[in-house]
Design brief:
alpha/beta, Ubiquitin-like (UB roll), Nucleotidyltransferase, domain 5, 6-stranded mixed beta sheet, 29 strands
Length: 636
């Protein structure tokens, strides 16, 4: 097969690839990172590169103008190397702002009231002083060790890994037969996790971690299993983002040979967080003896390197909802090699362990009040219920509220507009920017606020169409159709106008319609009017930044009194933390997952009808939004 040389401008060595290779594959081979928010489907346009020498065959030119193509631009995931050498310029990639807000301002987490490690925790520290062998007592090391465990903790049968068994004899002699064992006793099984020479004080910490693998963000809590206190909270963007910003894109990217890479990327993210937490705490990562993991079904499958393609294919079935416990070395986690990794149970293809954990930590099942629990994200997951019953569904909202699928959308990084107001007389905007810098784009909360203001001031109509007849130069016909200029080029960070287009608004309307329709279908499935919901609990890091008033005005959240809304932050990691500490809470997560009745919206005609009705601002039925209707009557 003919070979071609591809040279990227990032100082990487030229690579030789077979004719027909995609530019993105050549970039991977050269070690050049190019973001693929849509997972290589050619939809987002963010992997655009410029071919400065040679030529490529473009399978698709979506999101590229004729002028772009004339200038040599191509989508790396859709451009095939032909039988000649190619030189490629890679434009600066969007940099992720490190040290998330959740990391900088994380509130201290105290152990649950009444926590007692000796009755709730499955991990045990056991101090053993053994009688050394002699010519009169030639009992083998393993039997001698088990006898000591039996005397100390009544363990009749103990499981041990081969690598740890190989090291046991040396550790016993190094400690002069005085050693400290870390044991796990759960589900009637005793497992040896680690052995160290010499005796450790009973008050010294035994370390564990609670992990939440989000599609966008991964969070790790470092926990002292003896006291129950959270010592460190660290968050970082999931490295898998480079291969897709939503779960469907990730599943597609993990197909064929991509599964190994997707697992590697998330393991790298987790290990980086573990290293940071341990450096701050001044401990070694191998001191961590247990991990509890929550995440949506796709994230758990990719973590475990389990094929996930059936999650997106009808009838939408997971490979596993209740994974068994694994050892850390099987996954490549940088903790004690035999530490147990417990992935919490999920419910269905699009309602995973993050929601089971969220229901646990939000205490929905402890209340008689009818409660709506929402995790607003790329895959909007919803639970409705009380102590007596639980129903759940997931609606594919897409990544619009996280800045993707919007021309000048971005994540909630420095330079993102997070709040916006429009003067109803002049149509001039004012805004607040994260970091107080010149604006660079619009993040989710800013998009919600902007859309609400545009609607109430008449910049857009109920269908989300921009009104080009209003007396302001802020509205105009742009390259992508009608648009509203939020920031003029001279005021923007990169010297270009920041706009919102009709196409952007359509994506936002679809996202909000999917979420609201999910609420409605769940409520109607159990015969409860949505307005009679007594509590609305919003989980997820994005939920902390939503302006309830603005979200109601666009029809994203139900129009009920604001005092019924509560923002809980990351309920998934908190649920993982509770399950890490307390075996009874771990049993509760399993019970919660089993109790939830899952409604598959894709096969429900009522969802489609509800979705179509919600594709307007705030809704086709204004009686569902009386406070917004009143504002429209009075002119805001």
């Amino acid at each position: 097969m003919a070979q071609s040389t591809v040279q990227f401008d990032h100082g990487a060595a030229a690579v030789s690839v077979p004719t027909g290779t995609l530019l993105i594959e050549a970039a991977h081979q050269a070690g050049v990172e190019i973001g693929q928010p849509c997972g290589g489907q050619g939809r987002c346009g963010r992997c655009a590169v410029q071919v400065t020498s040679g030529s490529v065959r473009r399978r698709s030119t979506l999101r590229l103008s004729p002028e772009d193509v004339e200038a040599g631009f191509a989508l790396a995931c859709q451009a095939v190397v032909e039988a000649e050498d190619v030189a490629v310029f890679v434009p600066p990639q969007e940099e992720i702002q490190r040290h998330l807000t959740t990391d900088r301002v994380a509130a201290e987490v105290q152990a649950p009231t009444g926590y007692a490690a000796d009755t709730m925790q499955t991990i045990r520290r056991v101090s053993l002083t053994l009688t050394p062998p002699s010519l009169d007592d030639q009992t083998d090391d393993w039997s001698r060790f088990q006898t000591g465990l039996r005397q100390q903790m009544g363990a009749e049968k103990v499981e041990v890994s081969l690598p740890l068994l190989r090291r046991l004899g040396g550790i016993l002699r190094q400690g002069n037969w005085r050693v400290t064992a870390i044991m796990d006793r759960s589900n009637g099984i005793s497992r040896l996790i680690d052995v160290s020479p010499n005796l450790t004080p009973d008050t010294a910490p035994v370390w564990g971690i609670a992990i939440d693998i989000g599609t966008t963000t991964v969070t790790v809590w470092l926990v002292d299993l003896i006291s129950g206190k959270v010592a460190q909270q660290i968050s970082e963007y999931n490295n898998q983002i480079a291969r897709g910003e939503d779960v469907i894109s990730r599943i597609i990217a993990s197909g064929k040979d991509g599964g190994d890479e997707m697992q590697r990327l998330v393991i790298e993210t987790i290990n980086e967080l573990i290293d940071t937490a341990c450096i701050r705490q001044k401990i070694l990562p191998h001191a961590i003896m247990k991990a509890t993991v929550a995440g949506n079904s796709t994230m758990i499958h990719l973590l475990l390197r389990i094929p996930a393609e059936n999650i997106r294919l009808e009838p939408f079935v997971t490979a596993v909802n209740h994974p068994p416990v694994f050892h850390a070395h099987e996954l490549g986690l940088d903790v004690c090699p035999d530490a147990l990794v417990d992935c919490l149970p999920g419910v269905a293809s699009y309602v995973g362990a993050d929601i089971s954990a969220g229901v646990l930590s939000s205490e929905i099942t402890e209340s008689d009040q009818t409660t709506l629990f929402i995790d607003v994200g790329t895959n909007g997951e919803i639970v409705l219920g009380s102590s007596e019953w639980l129903v759940t569904c997931a609606c594919s909202a897409g990544p619009a509220f996280e800045g993707a699928g919007v021309l000048h959308g971005m994540r909630a990084n420095k330079g993102a507009i997070e709040e916006c107001w429009i003067n109803g007389a002049t149509y001039e905007p004012t805004y607040r920017v994260i970091g107080g810098t010149r604006p660079r784009g619009l993040c989710g909360s800013g998009l919600i606020a902007l859309l609400a203001e545009m609607f109430l001031t008449g910049v857009v109509d109920k269908a989300g169409h921009i009104n080009l007849t209003i007396p302001t130069s802020r509205v105009r016909e742009g390259e992508h159709g009608p648009e509203y200029v939020v920031v003029c080029a001279e005021d923007a960070q990169d010297g270009r106008d920041i706009v919102i287009t009709n196409v952007d608004i359509d994506n936002l309307l679809r996202a909000k319609a999917a979420i609201y329709a999910g609420f409605l279908v769940l409520a109607e499935s159990v015969g409860i009017p949505l307005e009679s919901v007594e509590r609305v609990l919003i989980g997820g890091s994005f939920g902390k930044y939503i302006n309830v008033e603005k979200a109601v005005e666009i029809g994203l959240l139900p129009d009920i009194p604001w005092d019924r809304f509560s923002f809980l932050g990351n309920t998934s990691v908190k649920g993982a933390y509770l399950a890490l500490l307390d075996c009874h809470q771990r049993d509760r997560v399993k019970e919660i997952a089993a109790r939830m009745t899952y409604i598959e919206l894709s096969s429900d005609n009522t969802f489609y009808e509800a979705f179509m009705s919600a594709l307007f601002l705030p809704h086709t039925d204004l009686s569902r939004f009386p406070s917004v209707e009143a504002m429209m009557v009075t002119g805001g």
